[in-house]
Amino acid sequence: MPITTTRRRLLAGSAAALALPAFARAQGAVKPRLTVISQWSAGSDGAAITALGKKFEEKGGVWQHSPVPGFTTEMMNKLRAQIIAGDPPACSQLKGPEIAAWSKIAPTVDLDAAVAAAGYEKVVAPDLAKLHKPAGKWIALPLQIYSTNMLFLSKRAMDKAKADKPPVTWADFNALAEKMKSAGMTYPLANGGTRPDDGQKFEASFAGISPTAYRAAIMNLDKKALEGPEIKAAFAQTRKIADWCDPNVGAQPYATNLKRFVDGDMGMLIMGGWAQGVLKNAGFKFDDYVIVPGPSDNGKPVFLLNADAFIFWQRKEADLQAGQMLMAQLVMDPTIQTMYSQITGSIPVRTDVDLSGEGWSDGQRTTAAALKNAVGNNQAVLSLAHNMAQENGLTAAMIDVITEYVKNKSIKPEQAVSRLADAVEGAR
Amino acid sequence: MTDVVSTATRPGQSATSEMLRRLPEFLMIWVPLLLSAAHLITFSIWTIWISFTPSTLVPVTGWVGLRNYTAVLASRNWQIAFDNLLLFGTAFVLFSLVTGLLLAILLDQRIRGENVLRTIFLYPLAVSFVVTGTVWSWLLNPGIGIEKLVHDLGWITFKFDWLVDRDMAIWTIVIAAIWQSSGFAMALFLAGLRSVDADIIKAAQIDGAGPVRTYWRVVLPTLWPITITVVVVQLQFAISAFDLVRALTNGGPGIATQLPALVVYDLMFQRSQLGRGAAAAVLMLLILLAVLLPYAAWRYLRRRQSAHA
Known about the structure:
The complex is a heterodimer of chains A (428) and B (309). By secondary structure, chain A is α/β, with parallel strands linked by helices. Chain A has 19 helices and ten strands. In chain A, strands 1, 2, 3, 4, 8, 9 and 10 form a seven-stranded mixed beta sheet that branches. A three-stranded antiparallel beta sheet of chain A has the order 6-5-7. In chain A, helix 2 links the parallel strand 1 and strand 2. In chain A, helix 2 packs antiparallel against helix 16 and helix 18 runs antiparallel to helix 19. Chain A starts with a helix and ends with a helix. Chain B is mainly α and 309 residues long. The longest helix of chain B has 37 residues. The N terminus of chain B is likely disordered. At the A-B interface, helix 3, helix 18 and helix 19 of A face helix 13 of B.
């Protein structure tokens, strides 16, 4: 008997001796370190992630961010190369259905415990949460939300056209555009000609005409909805929008038009909330324009969701693991989300953040209210143009059809409908 | 030196020293040749293999038969790219040939300052395609380029907006490509013109042929081997054209100026569809072979003919 006791005590003692260093490590004896790659290098995006890095360092971490400027796909090429080489970053930007696709090619970190500890799941829109736990476990965390179909109205242009009410439905929108045109604005719309911009023209039209049909056709690829009357009407509306844009813009981004927009030479812009950050950076004031939810034929706001997120890749190094946990805590923190959104012009992922305080714009408040309203009415859908509704390959095939339709006025809406259906069939 | 010669003549040691003597040239020719051949062949085979797999984000094993090929061939992107290639290839080769020949004939007139002019005409070739594309994208932009210049000069109704016109945009690539490489055609033609036997030209002149007739009936027929070389070199450039288009129009407006190389890049690196991108790359290789194989056959036949003669 006494012998067993000693043995037990000995075992317990050695177990404690073994566990102690590990415990100490987890408690921060190792300096948390995080390797991050993202496309955010300049402008308000760059400023926001730099501020996040500062917070990470304040908590005692080592922040190693390597931005890959350009399109998201450029960042993905670096990520792919690192994964194939067996050296993924501890954390990288990734969003939408790509999270599910990429999580199949390399092991990711199970964040369930951290999410439960923060009580995060209760404050995230359910559709959005689903994208970040593809196999039932949280492996990525959304950071900020944009709506891609906010309507920016130039105050000077509204005055010129003697209009005082923002449009609610597409019919209102079309009437206002005509009114602006007859008030001397040759091109009432300030949108650009990039691929995502063309995609936004179409998705704003489609979701505004019928969010139900949009969900069925674009998100669920339902064959009947892809050939339905709503999608044809959406293409017809897209043509109207395209005709009101300046053709000389070619493939340039909307930002080239912002001065003409603020000056009142162009009246309206269908764009995501990030344009606010761009307008701010370009030196324009909040009272130069108003932001309202994009046109919706049933009168209730439709929210085309675009959310940036971080995915966490499995690493063996203790300092990187500690860094991942610290980063997860920061990303879910309401004060960090507030800081981030106030820099970029987005709205926080958490639905419990109060936007009434200083530092928030009316546009952000409108957007947040629209999201709440849209989620309540089941009118929050995922954006196609910004890679939220479908994986890259399928999105690109659909945008091909849309951008060609926008640029080529001889294509009829019904032709575009059948081409889009063919493209979906071909890319699957 | 004398030592080497004397040992080489000694029997028994001659084989070794002969090998030693030839070692540098052996290393210099065969090692790079084998390396680049292995490089080329390995990656070509690897690409062909990938084109038959269901690879998307990363290469995977598996077999999907010709599915990637049928998908690429059925896509509008590829169809537009292929039509554009036919138009761009023909127009570019034809115009750069004519421009190059014309420049060469004009330079051949024993004019003053020939060296300076030749350098100027050849200079664009030294510029990278990305630079050419960027510069021409500024020149052709209706808002800041040639159109604006003419407007500012007072001709308000002047219109030159091919860059943003989806039907004409492909011609802006033709223009930039001709500017870039007709100097190359000129240099080859000029060398050809200079190697024409002066006696033949004199004989033609004595027979009473004017300058036009001399060129048309006597000089130009001797240039056709050079013409074929120029056509083949320019064609393989046209087929693999990438950087110029990417800088100038990036396939736009819409997808109006897609070319096969852009489609390959798009599929592989923008759309994460490695299998389809590889299939498109193999299709490009087949188009290249369709140009290069007849050329190789033609050279082989010519060599045999001259050997017999």
